[in-house]
């Protein structure tokens, strides 16, 4: 998308607004698919939590991907988007047996990550094949909040508890049709991922009825010029060779699974905001925008970097700005960032705003969540309306409890 396209979207739909470039999503999907083209059976399940708009789910499903879900609501969104139940995998953490049973009844692949639920589910539903999420005790991920495969993580069943899993499987006579892991997000070192994969292969050899092995995801995308990213082509070449060899050892062609979320949609997203005020203090020039961490929490939550471009004046003289929001506490998107000269009323764009941005937005300070727009075939398509005051109040119950107090006063 060009700056002119982004300005046109802001003019038509107002600000703040999220915009997603479908061409980038398609390109990323094809890149990952091509990296594993020498594997006979590959299944990419898009991680819905990254960006769950139904239009995005439809687009990605049209490319051939299934869905990776973590809640029954994400499953229901997938079904509403037209995704077949058998193309959805459910990988929750810490949810009730009831929720897992409700999802299973929809025909979705279940992935269980703790011994207690595995035994309960297997005892009640021994004829329903399930996948098991393993914790390989490998630390991977670009931030402690997104590293989920280490020994202190709440996710997965420890590799040291394989004997417990085997005992439960034997006692319940349940079928394990998949083995899964997810080490973390923003993986930089391909060799670390391959090391964890060897642990998964060793674990898989304990189960004789597998249909697939799911390697999770967490591929690093670039957040600024020159940034390091996961070398997908190198990773694809190395894991393909090892996976094909394992299938030969196992005596069966298994499906190689991944759950790309950020990799597919992060770089496709732009968050557009208007500059309300340029404020000079004794040491800083602030650019205050019509948004805050209620709409884009990643910089405050993960210390994440998002490139910021002044699309109203992209070729202007660069100056240093601290970009801040309108929330009633510290609300900083960037500190002393070089940006083309900003004037009040300019539209600025945050890049890499496709993953974990709108999906983590809130109504903090009673602000409305933004609109979402999909750029498809050279046109802007509104895929979520901006919220209104009615949206803030529609589920509140106006109780008549205080009239007597008011009258007596």
Automatic annotation (TrEMBL):
Lyase in keyword set: yes
Q: Which cofactor does it need?
A: pyridoxal 5'-phosphate
Q: Which UniProt keywords apply?
A: Amino-acid biosynthesis, Decarboxylase, Lyase, Lysine biosynthesis, Pyridoxal phosphate
Q: Which residues form the active site?
A: 328 (proton donor)
Q: Which GO terms describe its molecular function?
A: diaminopimelate decarboxylase activity; pyridoxal phosphate binding
| Swiss-Prot/TrEMBL catalytic activity | meso-2,6-diaminopimelate + H(+) = L-lysine + CO2
Q: Which InterPro entries match?
A: Ala_racemase/Decarboxylase_C (IPR009006), DAP_deCOOHase_LysA (IPR002986), De-COase2_C (IPR022643), De-COase2_N (IPR022644), De-COase2_pyr-phos_BS (IPR022653), Orn/DAP/Arg_de-COase (IPR000183), PLP-binding_barrel (IPR029066)
Its pathway, per UniProt, is: Amino-acid biosynthesis; L-lysine biosynthesis via DAP pathway; L-lysine from DL-2,6-diaminopimelate: step 1/1
Q: Which residues form the Orn/DAP/Arg decarboxylase 2 C-terminal domain?
A: 18-354
Q: Which residues bind pyridoxal 5'-phosphate?
A: 218, 356
Q: Which positions bear N6-(pyridoxal phosphate)lysine?
A: 49
Biological process terms in GO annotation? lysine biosynthetic process via diaminopimelate
Matching NCBIfam families, A to Z? lysA (TIGR01048)
Assigned protein family: Belongs to the Orn/Lys/Arg decarboxylase class-II family. LysA subfamily.
Q: How does it assemble?
A: Homodimer.
Q: What does this protein do?
A: Specifically catalyzes the decarboxylation of meso-diaminopimelate (meso-DAP) to L-lysine.
Q: What's the name of the protein?
A: Diaminopimelate decarboxylase
Organism expressing this protein natively: Aquimarina spongiae
Q: Which gene encodes it?
A: lysA
């Amino acid at each position: 998308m060009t700056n002119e396209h982004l300005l046109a979207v802001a003019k038509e739909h107002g600000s703040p607004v999220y915009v997603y470039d479908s061409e980038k999503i398609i390109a990323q999907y094809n890149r990952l698919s091509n990296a594993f083209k020498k594997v006979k059976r590959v299944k990419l399940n898009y991680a819905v939590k990254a960006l769950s708009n139904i239009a995005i789910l439809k687009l990605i499903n049209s490319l051939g991907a299934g869905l990776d879900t973590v809640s029954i609501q994400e499953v229901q969104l997938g079904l509403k988007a037209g995704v077949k139940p058998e193309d959805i995998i459910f990988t929750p953490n810490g949810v009730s047996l009831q929720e897992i049973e409700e999802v299973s009844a929809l025909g979705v692949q279940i992935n269980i990550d703790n011994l207690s639920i595995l035994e309960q589910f297997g005892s009640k539903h021994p004829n329903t094949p399930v996948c098991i999420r393993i914790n390989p005790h490998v630390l991977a991920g670009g931030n402690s909040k997104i590293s989920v495969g280490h020994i202190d993580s709440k996710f997965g069943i420890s590799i040291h508890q394989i004997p417990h899993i085997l005992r439960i499987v034997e006692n319940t006579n349940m079928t394990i049709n998949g083995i899964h892991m997810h080490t973390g997000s923003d993986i930089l070192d391909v060799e670390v991922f391959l090391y964890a994969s060897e642990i998964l292969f060793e674990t898989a050899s304990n189960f004789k009825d597998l249909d697939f092995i799911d390697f999770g995801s967490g591929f690093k995308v670039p957040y600024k010029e020159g940034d390091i990213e996961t070398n997908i082509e190198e990773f694809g070449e190395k894991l393909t060779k090892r996976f094909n060899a394992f299938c030969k050892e196992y005596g069966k062609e298994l499906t190689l699974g991944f759950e790309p979320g950020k990799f597919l949609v992060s770089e496709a997203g732009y968050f557009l905001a208007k500059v309300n005020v340029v404020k000079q203090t004794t040491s800083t020039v602030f650019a205050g925008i019509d948004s805050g961490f209620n709409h884009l929490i990643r910089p405050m939550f993960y210390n994440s970097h998002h490139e910021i471009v002044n699309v109203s004046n992209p070729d202007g003289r660069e100056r240093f700005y601290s970009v801040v929001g309108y929330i009633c506490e510290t609300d900083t998107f960037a500190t002393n960032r070089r940006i083309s000269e900003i004037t009040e009323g300019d539209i600025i764009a945050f890049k890499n705003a496709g993953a974990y941005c709108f999906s983590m937005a809130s109504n903090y300070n009673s602000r409305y969540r933004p609109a979402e727009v999909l750029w498809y075939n050279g046109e802007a398509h509104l895929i979520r309306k901006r919220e209104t005051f009615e949206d803030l109040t529609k589920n509140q119950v106006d109780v008549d409890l205080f009239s007597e107090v008011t009258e007596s006063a």
